[in-house]
Amino acid sequence: MPLRCRGTGVTQPDVNGGGPVNSGPGHAVNGGPAGTRAVVLGASVAGLLAARVLADHVDEVIIVEGDDVTGSAHGRHRGGAAQGRHLHALMERGRQILEELFPGLTAELAAGGVPAAETLVGTRWYFDGARVAPASTGLTSVLASRPVLEAALRARTLARPGARLLPGVRAVGLAPAGTTRVAGVRIRPLAGDAPARVLAADLVVDATGRGTRGPEWLEELGLARPRADSVDVDLAYASRTYRRRPGELGGDFGVIISTLPGRRGGGAVAQEGDRWIVTLAGMLGDHPPVDPDGYDRFAASLPAGDIHRLIQGAQPLDDPVRYRFRTSRWLRYDRLRPGADGFLAIGDALCAFNPLYAQGMTVAAQQALALRDCLQSAATGVSGAAGLAGAARLDGLARRYFAAAAGPTSRAWSIATDSDLRYREIPGRRGLRTRVINAYVPRVQAATRADPVLARALLRVVNLVEPSSTLLAPAVLARTVRFGLRRIRTLPPNNENG
Ligand SMILES: Cc1cc2nc3c(=O)[nH]c(=O)nc-3n(C[C@H](O)[C@H](O)[C@H](O)COP(=O)(O)OP(=O)(O)OC[C@H]3O[C@@H](n4cnc5c(N)ncnc54)[C@H](O)[C@@H]3O)c2cc1C
């Protein structure tokens, strides 16, 4: 159910000649004195969060989006964010940040019919085929479909003074100033055959997602491109929606079944509009089919039967659709020397995670906070130094931002890639840290089936609310060891890994 649009903030630009988007250097804004302008490429989750943060620090933020996301397209599935047809879980840390940037968002979503539940109280999780003990986690699962969440973020971002959207316009390259600075973006409307024009900017933010051409665009200007860290996972999702009736899934709002130790997993989650979104997932080429019979058979093969039982009796509302994800990739702008000034990347354009860990939106939100903090310290001055004014605040921002964003990105990247490296078939370096984690964390996971304290601790790490190091706290270690000893005493040896 699309949420109400609070403000429009949509510009139908004269991209073909003159008009606000075509202003040259100094780019006077709204007829006033020349102001600072940021241009954000991509109006999906990361781009909207970047724009929200920037709107507090520059005079004008223009969001360039290839898709039409206005009018009847608002709150609907769209080609530029095709992953939106699949289950999107918002981790608690992400929800907290969205709430900080847009106070009242959780309540607004609930008022629009989005279900919410306490994680592990109203939702079930399975790790390594065993159900995690129900426990109070203090974590809220807000179960909005991806288009509805994005529509709410877009409406609130465009309600900020100075924020504007150019829908149906593609970025096709960058514009240079001198040899180390990006000074704008080349854009072209999707409709018609108008040539590309330059939209001048003091700052360009690449939020074009995993298909980003940012590195190529930098190279075209003679600037260095970042190298990529990557892990090949060859994952595919197949998703289908079903009518949701009261009492299904024992009255719970969702179930998540992890792929490990096999290759197959899935999730079924309640959504607004009395629907279930059911996503089946297969790693390393073991992909779920999209024909209805094959889809049902794949669901029946999961390590827990909850999803298959649910879809047996439920009425499908559409056909299954597929999304293939081959590689997790982190573009290491933080290591680029010298980097380009005036150019940032955020969200999947910076780091695209294996979606099984549901981290992408939350890490984008953490990166947006890193951007906000860099902008704030430039505005107020650090260590008693006077703050900077206008465009001077943006000098050196890219280097500071990439360093700050590397912190949360790296923490989430380690959780996801260490876990993926449990599969022997996935190539990658398994240093001592990874080997220790992959020996220890499955033991914590195994113990969560019987220990609500461990269940709470683990889910808070998974939700990026607590750092992974909390799993090494003496109390957690002791409970994990105690569970392991109890298993050895109570299970016959040949069941130890069963
Ligand atoms: C199958 C799948 C499932 C996922 N599940 C989860 C989940 O459960 N939880 C979670 O947190 N994350 C999940 N993610 C990740 C999540 O979708 C992203 O991390 C999140 O949406 C942030 O993405 P983004 O805004 O950086 O990019 P995207 O959402 O990919 O958006 C990029 C935007 O840029 C626009 N664009 C692209 N090129 C241009 C151009 N040249 N000019 C103008 N506009 C352009 C596109 O139209 C689009 O609007 C999943 C991802 C996939 C693939």
TrEMBL record:
SUPFAM superfamilies: FAD/NAD(P)-binding domain (SSF51905)
Gene3D superfamilies xrefs: FAD/NAD(P)-binding domain (3.50.50.60)
Region named Disordered: 1-30
Domain of life per record: Bacteria
Database matches in PANTHER family: THIAMINE THIAZOLE SYNTHASE
Stated name of the protein: FAD-dependent oxidoreductase
